[in-house]
Every structure is written in structure tokens, then in C-alpha cells.
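Field reference: sequence -> structure
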Amino acid sequence: MRKLCSALWIFSVVAQAATGNASKGSAADSVLFESKPYISTADYQTIVDSLAPGSLFGMSIRSLHTGKQIATVNADSFFTPASTMKTVTTAAALDYLPLNFQAKTSVHMEGSFAGKTFSGVIRLRGEGDPNISARFYSQPFYVLHQFADSIRSKNIDTLQIRIELDTTYFSGPRKPDHWKSNYFDSWYGAEITPLEFNDNCTLVHMDPGEKIGDTAKISIDPDIGYVKVNNALITGKGSRRKWKYSLDKDSAVLNISGTIGVNVTDAAIVIPVRDPNHYFEAAFIHAMKERGLIVIDDPAAQSGLDIYTFEYAGTPLLSFLDEINQRSQNLHAETLFRNFAAAKYGVGNVENGKKGVRTFLQKMELSAEDFILYDGCGLSPKNRLKPSSETKLLAKMARHPRGKYYIKSFASPWVGSGYKRMRELEYGWRIRFKTGFINEAHGLVGYMPTIDGDTLVIASYLNRTGKTPDNTCRGILDSIWSSIYRATNNGYASLLEMKKLYIQGESVSGLENRLRFFSEKFLDKPYLLGPTGEGYVDTIDSKPMVYTDSLDCVTYLEHVLALAKSPDENAIFKTLQKIRYLNGDIAYKNRKHYFVLDWIGEGTFARQIPQPNDTLVIRTIPKKAFFNAKGIAYGKPDPQIYLKYLPLDKAIEFSKQEWQGESTIRGIGFVSRLQIIDIFHTGFLILEKGKKPVLRDASQKFGKVLDHELQEYLESWVGTGKVPGILLFEFL
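Structure field:
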């Protein structure tokens, strides 16, 4: 902010220009800079080159307000997106599926009764509900118990049945093409089926035996008799963990060997199961038995009339989105990909999912060629997208009628896949992002609100990371995002403080009363010369655009006036910038640097009050030299100002008298003897009927905001020749 509290600051800038030491401005320098100071792409590339040498870095940063990219690094090159590809799948599904979409599972009883015995076929039909698990319910059998209870409610206690699985809702392989074979041995590579139970995975607990040399104890959770274990794990010494496991290619068999220390506790692994449709069947039979039903397997049982059908509408669409974008669940993403395809084209498979995404991208006026999909979750190493196109997609989804649901489904620091990321950021919960990682590919994309009300849409990628540790790669992207966030939200804590103050003063009406109320709230705040600037918006002065920890004379006045005049707490920032900048256009060249000439002279927020015995002087304000010192071409003749002020001796007479009018609050400016500026200090003048005038200001001398008698302050300048006089102004 302008340093009016010290005339020497402006004098030094102008003197520097006059002696030829200022940088030369150009026509281009007089407009807002094309790039913004935090977008130091060269610095970011240097970080990448230093910490992940040989890797490929890509980034696109787009302003949501303007839709324009404001920084790019390889933004039009193709990158492996890893799980950030889920943002495409969820966007297409959210656009097409109804908000009340729910994945359904049904049980069809086809046969006959004899007393309390049902004989025939039970057909289980799945339409892709991945949350029949403890992820969504209190325990994994919740939905299956509901089915069992429904059967019992029909006065049935015995089932002599053959179970049929209707899996026609999805087509194509359970193991997606193009996934690496080792993925299918990990929980994140579970097979994709229309009947899904417990994430199509099981938890394997490993406990040491009673003594060294004993075979370890292996238990399965949930234990429904589906997964078989070949146990060659031996109890060893101490706390050593040295085991390995493998899964049979086609059947639910786990082979585990190695050693586990006798002191080891809480050892467990999560493994995917083979043929999850039959895993669901086994869980269904287990649930019926738990509910007291007698189940007799009869392979020869014949189908009959469709006697009863029980349907359970499970996972809502928005819960799908949370699991996919917040917790990055591949199973959920692939299931939704096929659900979306089935709803749109009748059959849920990868080809129809890809077809649906292409149609969606064309509808959104995006190039489908910029998004190369082989699956719905991003696990395929063949997936590709361009960072610039990803930010276009995110920007369009932010303006989509369902955009709020989309954005809220993303992770953030402390939430979902962002639980351990960027935790140190103050108010970092405002960021929403989607993470991504597969071998040698990292991604971080999402939304970053800024203090000035814009939102940055960011897509950042590291590919070909080689031997660079994954934690280092994540740290690089987190550091870049943190740097951008700190720059674009510098002063956010102060803005929140102002909002709290605004709420405290909501019941105070009338501009003068509000000015009194809010100006008093800042009493005893520390003084700091020039505490504010243009933040991230301009390159010259990057100090925060809002700052209440410390104040100078002008920023004190401006922050109070913004609080007093804002129609609501969300308008404070915009009001403050209108007070500080011509037309509210944030740029150093538009700042009202000269208080009387620019700030009062604009005629929007204040007007000078003529006084008897005013003296008139004419000054030429050297704006050209002032801006040249900052590398900005002013491009106009230096303006003249007709400065009317009350001479110091008359001002002292005024300050000695008790105020006879109605109590009010005004502004006061102290005229400088220097010809190159107008005033050097300002503040509020508290006028109470029957009392002497009180100056309320952010004082450099006293180092804080305080109240003191105007007479005392003026008399301290007598004989110095530094204060020709004062001027008074009213707030409009």
C-alpha cells in the first residue's frame, strides 16, 4: 500500500527516477502483466529437475473466472494421468445419470413351496453395487442379511435350491485389458463384476505360533469358506516380518510362506478374490445361514414360477463419487464406468463406457482426442490426457448444473487420499483435489480458491519418474501446490477476521455509527508501514491485499471503511479493493497512491469539507517519475492539484475548542511541506459534542492504533515547519 505515513518513501522513489537510476518503462508495462508472480514455471521446473531428474513435468493453471490459462508447462503434451482419469469418468456419469441413481441388487425366487420349504432356483442379479460392504454399512453382511430376513418373512425356514448368477448387466472380462498382471494380486486391482461383496477382497490376518518353529496362524475376515490358504508361514525370532504371498491365477487360493516374528502383532494383508460373482454367492449363503435359514444345495433343483422378488437399491450416485474422487477406489470407478455404459447403451462394458465419455466430451465442447481412455479408473498405463484439456474439463464441470456435487466429491488435506497431503497449509481445507499414482506416474488436479474470489483450476503431472521415490514425487507436486496456495491466499486469515468483525457489527446502522464501531475494534493494533500490496495479482508489490495484523494510517482507514460500507461479509474484499484501486481494478498502476489527488479526488468514498480560513496552494504531483521508478510508463502529463487546507495555527485553534455540533466522525489529513506529495498522514477525527476533537489513527510514533487529543498532536509539530496545516473530509 502507499506509504503516506512517511513522506520520505515517495520522495526517495521520485528522487531515484530523477537521477536516472529507475528502470525504463514501456507501453506494455503500463497494463496488467500477462503472467502472475506466483506462476514461476521456471522455478517449478528447476525443483522437478533437481529432485526428480529426467522426469517429465506438465502443468496447466487456468482462471475459472476468465477461463484462460495463466501458466503452462508442457500443457499440450500427453501424460499418463493415473487415477486423475477418474475425474473424467465421474464427470461423464454425473452429467448423464439421474441424481437419484442407485445401484441395484435383486434376489428372484423361482420354484414352489411345501410347507415352510422352498424348492427351486434362487437367481441373484447384480447391477454393480460396490458398497455391499462395511465401507458403506455397519458390517459387510448388512444388505445380505436384509435379503435373508425378507425370505424368512415369507414363513420360510428351509431352502432346497440351486443358485443362478445373473451377471448380464456387465459384459467383457472381469480382469480389464491393459492392466499389468501384478495389479490383480493387489486390493486395488480387484476384478470387476456386477455382483460385488466386500470390495471383492478379503482381509488376511497373520499371527505367530506359540513358539519359534511353529506354523503361523492364518485367519480370513470375513471367513465364509471361499478363500483357501496354503500356509507355509513359520514363526521366527523377535519382530521380524519376512513373508511373501501369491494368488492362484483362477481360483481363490492364497499361498503364503516365509517367517513372522514371535513378537509380531496386528499383521494383515488385503487380497482380491478370484471370480467375485461366486464370492458374492458364498457370502449370500453364509448370510442366510446366519439368519437361521437351512440351506440345502440341490444341483438338480428346477426353476418354477417367479414367486418372490426382493430388490435392494444400494449405493447412491453421490456416494459413488465420494469413494472414487475422495478415496480413489478403482473398483468403484470401474463399476460406475460400466453402470454409466449400461444406463446409456444397455450393456455395461468398457467399450460403451469409452463411447459414452467421448459423447460427453463432445457435448462439453472438449476435444475427445485429448483424452485417451482404456479404462474408467486410470490404472491402465496406456491412458493419456493433456493437462490443458484436463483444466478445461474441470472448469466446465465447475459451471455445470451439478458442479457443486462434483467439486465436493474431491479430496482435500486431511480428507480421503489427501489425508497426509499439504496438512501444514492454513485453511488448506478450501482446496479440492484428485490424486493419482501408478508406476512412474503421479498426478494432482483440482480446484484452488483464491483470496480475491477467483478459483484456479490446476492439473499437474510427473511422468517417467524412474527411480525417484514416490514420496519425493508426491512432495514435489504438493510443494508446488502449497506455493501457489500461499501466494494466492496471502491475507486470508485477515479476511476471516474482518468477516468476524462484520458479524459483530451487523446490528449497528448508519455509516457514521459503523465507522465509529469498527474503527474502535482496531485500537491497539500494531503499526506497520506499508503492510499491504497487490498480492499475487501484480508483480511489483506482492504483500497481502488484506492485512489486519498490523496497519498503517491509510490501510487502517481503508479496512474500517470497507467494513462500514459492505452490504454483507462476503462483499468485504471487493469493497476494500474498490476503495484502494481505481474502478476496483487491482494493479499497482491503479492504486490510489496520492491521498488527496487520487483517494479523495475520485469522489466516490470521501469529499473534502471546506473550512473558514482555508489556504490554497497548487502543486504538481510527479506521477511520471513515481511510476517510472517502478518500471511503469505513466503516459500522461504530471497532474496539478489545488490543495486547500487549514493552516497549522488555525488548526490548533480549532483543536482547542469543544465541539458544538452533533457528535460525528470525519477524516483528517495532515498536509506535507514536501511539494511532491499532498499529505503524509491521515486518520479519523472523533467529534463528540462538548468535547475537544480526538484523533484516532495508526500512529508511527506510538507504534499502534490509538486515540489521542488532536491538540496535543498538532502542537508537537509547531516550529518544525513540517506540517503546513490540515484538511477535513467526510465519508460518503
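Note: The two ends are 22 Å apart (CA to CA).
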